């Protein structure tokens, strides 16, 4: 039980909960905007094109039933708009995160020291070696080089 509580505290302290809460709030507000777009702009355009009453999209409601293809079409358009925007936001966030991580990794690594080369056989050897492992020549000390 203590392990579960500890994991939950780590989850809360990471900031993921705040990010998720902000996403839900913004998602709700954005969904209201998109719903208004479909109900107030797109559905009237469909009504204008197909012809129909104010309360229903003409030709898209099955007479004598509760089946309303117009509302379904509006919900599909609403979903597609929200899905495309969420996809674009996630893609942009992932790209920004990737750039930030690559920037951190390049800043953490100090520049690599040049690998010393034997002046006789021109092969690389370890820094501080006194003899070349390839040709056996005695190497000059770093002060002499």
CATH architecture of the largest domain: Orthogonal Bundle
Largest sheet data: none
User: What is the average per-residue confidence, as pLDDT, rounded to a whole number?
Assistant: 75
Q: SSE order, as H and E?
A: HHH
Describe the structure.
The structure is a single chain. By secondary structure, the chain is mainly alpha-helical. The protein folds into 2 domains: 2-108, Orthogonal Bundle (Non-ribosomal Peptide Synthetase Peptidyl Carrier Protein, Chain A), CATH 1.10.1200; 112-145, no CATH class. The protein has 3 helices and no strands. It has helices at 2-13, 16-50, 69-108. The mean pLDDT is 75.
Summarize the structure.
With 145 residues, this protein is mostly helical.
Give me some keywords for this one.
elongated, 145 residues, 3 helices, mainly alpha
Question: What's the helix and strand layout?
Answer:
Elements: H1 2-13, H2 16-50, H3 69-108
């Amino acid at each position: 039980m203590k392990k579960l509580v500890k994991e939950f505290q780590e989850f809360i302290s990471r900031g993921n909960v705040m990010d998720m809460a902000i996403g839900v709030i913004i998602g709700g507000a954005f969904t209201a905007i998109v719903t208004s777009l479909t109900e107030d702009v797109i559905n009237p355009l469909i009504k204008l094109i197909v012809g129909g009453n104010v309360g229903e999209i003409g030709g898209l409601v099955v007479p004598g039933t509760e089946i309303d293809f117009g509302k379904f079409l509006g919900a599909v358009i609403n979903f597609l708009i929200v899905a495309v925007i969420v996809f674009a936001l996630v893609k942009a966030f992932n790209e920004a995160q990737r750039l930030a991580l690559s920037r951190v990794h390049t800043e953490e690594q100090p520049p690599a020291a040049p690998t010393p080369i034997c002046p006789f056989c021109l092969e690389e050897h370890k820094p501080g070696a006194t003899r070349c492992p390839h040709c056996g020549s005695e190497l000059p000390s770093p002060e002499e080089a």
